[in-house]
């Protein structure tokens, strides 16, 4: 029996999405103690969690199913966003909300319009759905070419969904409200992924989602709210769409502990605000230091990460891309950053960590800048 005859055709030869390895996996690979690892590769929020979150984690009974209607969590989000809870639905992370959006709208051959470089999950989901994936590359400054997107929507047969990540991952840039308005007016489902919006100075578009019939906002508690491990994401959906999402959502998502902890986290607004101030302060401090270094140019970011262009004369023009060389040299010191390759071969993306971690990063960068990427390194801490 050939299993491939039974597996749906679009999954033949499919590779899974490759997320960043855990700190434990990397410690093992590098032969370093776990305590020496500084994980700045997945845009996690590593600022200390709120006391109420730790208390909630300790007080969830593990034996009962979660509320499938997510009542308390949706009430908390309704209060957080100022949006009627009937427009809100939660899932196991923003990733699962994206998956549900594909499930509802995208079948084989349907057009999916994306603006890379951006979050890789959209392209991965499009491949899984056997969609017609249409890339409209961003400009050199990472802004969206709105004219080109409009043309792609016009010219793509059965164009279904457009993804707009604001602020964008991996560069942290924002799309102007004027450009967003043009994109949201297109006759297509427009998914505005606002995973990092709370860390920016930009207005969000949740009220557009509520008032429109084609704009969906994807959000997550993984970033500013600091619950990446709990897997809680949500969408704000127009009234004509949300019913379809309830129809395809896994019955008991998110888990009971996740819902309980998320409600607690959202109740501590003072802690959320303090975390934002701490992340923005570290982001600004890092960018100032990189400017002083002179060989690592930060792309202006409104997120909890900074994409940096490597211009060090010892790293540019080598057989390996400059970004790969710096990424590798930092990794040898236990400092994990993200290297993408392709059009981003000269870049590394650095997530904002705690002040002590950023100090260790800067010390490593100074060392690498002075001595090159080939020296036998010492662990950062
Ligand atoms: C742009 C963007 N959207 C969505 C997500 C999904 O986040 P999560 O699944 O942790 O909620 C991420 C995570 O890194 C992201 O960068």
SSE blueprint:
Blueprint: H1 23-30, E1 38-39, H2 51-58, H3 71-81, E2 88-91, H4 93-105, E3 111-114, H5 121-128, E4 132-135, H6 146-155, E5 159-165, H7 177-184, E6 189-193, H8 206-211, E7 215-220, E8 233-236, H9 239-248, H10 256-267, H11 269-293, E9 296-298, E10 305-310, H12 322-332, E11 335-336, E12 347-351, H13 355-371
Parallel strand pairs: 1-11, 3-4, 3-5, 5-6, 6-7
Antiparallel strand pairs: 2-8, 7-8, 9-10, 10-12
Helix pairs in contact: 2-10, 3-10, 4-5, 11-13
Pyridoxal-5'-phosphate binds at residues 43, 93-95, 119, 165, 169, 193, 195, 220, 222, 228, 233.
Instruction: State the CATH architecture of the largest domain.
Output: 3-Layer(aba) Sandwich
The largest pleated sheet is described as: 7 strands, mixed
Spans of at least 5 consecutive residues whose pLDDT stays below 50 are: none
Shape: globular
Number of helices: 13
Mean pLDDT: 95
Helix-and-strand structural type: alpha/beta
Corresponding CATH superfamily of the largest domain:
Type I PLP-dependent aspartate aminotransferase-like (Major domain)
Number of strands: 12
Q: Look at the structure and give the CATH class of the largest domain.
A: Alpha Beta
Distance between the termini: 54 Å
Order of helices and strands: HEHHEHEHEHEHEHEEHHHEEHEEH
Bound compounds: pyridoxal-5'-phosphate
* CATH topology assignment of the largest domain: Aspartate Aminotransferase, domain 2
Estimate the helix proportion, in percent: 25-40%
For the biggest β-sheet, the strand order reads 2-8-7-6-5-3-4
Number of domains: 2
Radius of gyration: 21 Å
Classify the beta-strand content into a percent band: 5-15%
